[in-house]
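pasting Olfactory receptor for the record, 332 residues
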Amino acid sequence: MSRRSETIGKFRLSQVTEFILRSLTADPQLQLILFVIFLIIYAVTLLGNAGMIVLIWISPQLHTPMYFFLTHLSIMDICCSSAITPQFLCHLLKEKKVISFAGCFTQIYFYGALSTTECSLLAVMAYDRYVAICHPLLYLVTMSQIKCVQLVVVSYTAGFVHGLVHIIPASQLFFCGPNIIKNFFCEGPALLQVACSDISLNYLLIFIFMGFNILATILAILTSYTYVLITVLKMHSAKAQRKAFSTCASHLMVITIFYGCGTFVYAQPGKSHYTNQIASMLYVIVTPMLNPLIYSLRNQEVKVAFRKILEKKVAFLCYTKHRIPLELQRHI
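structre below
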C-alpha cells in the first residue's frame, strides 16, 4: 500500500495515496470471460447511444423537443458509462486493482454529476410528454427551442453543482488505511467507509441533496404522468389513446429501469459485498446500454426514421453501382 508519511506533533500518521478496488472474482479465467462480456456491453452502449444521436441529428422528422432531450440523455449514458467501464475493463486484466487518490475522486465526481443530470433529464422529458398530451395546442409555444435549451442547461447545472457539493467536503477527509474500497469502482458511500475522519457532514449532505434530487424528480415524473393518464382516459378515440400511450411507453420503461436499479443498489443496507457489486454493475454498466435499445425497438417514429435512412443508403448504393459502369464505358 502506497502512503505518504506526515508528522503531527509526536505522532506519525500515514495518508493513503491510492485505493484498491474489490474484484468480482479472483479467478483469472473468469475475469477474462467477464472482460469480453463487458467489453461487448460497452461497445453496444457507445454504438447504440452514438447511433441514436446521429439518427436524431440527420432525421428532420425527429427534430422535436422530445428527441432533443433524448439526444442529451444518450450523451449522459455515453459519459456515465465511460467514466466507469474503461477503468473496470483494465482492472479485469490486472492482478492488482489500484486507482490513484485523484483518479478515485475524479470518478466519484463525474459519476455523481452525470447521474444527477440524467435524473433531471428524465423529469424534463416527463414534463415534455405532459405538455404534448395534455396541452397539444400550446406545445410548440410552451416547449420552444429557447425553453428546451434552458431546461437542458438547468439539468446540467444541477448535476455538476450537485457533484461539487459532495466532492469538496469528501476531498478534505483524511484516509489512513485500510485503503480497500468494497466495490469495482470508486463510489461515494464506499469511499466514506474507509475514511479516518468524521463523516457525519458528508452523510448529511448526501441525505439532503441526494434526497431532494430524487424526491423532486420522482414527484415531477409522477405528477406529469398522472395528468397524462387522466387526459388519455378521457379520450374517446381508442386510436388516440394507443398513440398517446405509445409516445410515453419507452420513456416510462427507461424511468422504471433507471430508478428501479438505483433503488436496488442504494436502498438495501444489508446487502452482501457480492450482491452490492452485481447490483452496481447492472445500474452503472448495463442500464446505459438498454436506453437506446428501448427507444429504437419500442418507438415507431425512430423505426420509421431509421427505415428511411436505410432506404436512402440502399438507393444511393444501387444508383452508384449502376452509374459507374456507364461512366467507365464513356471514358473507354
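The radius of gyration is 24 Å.
Residues 1-14 have pLDDT under 50 and may be disordered.
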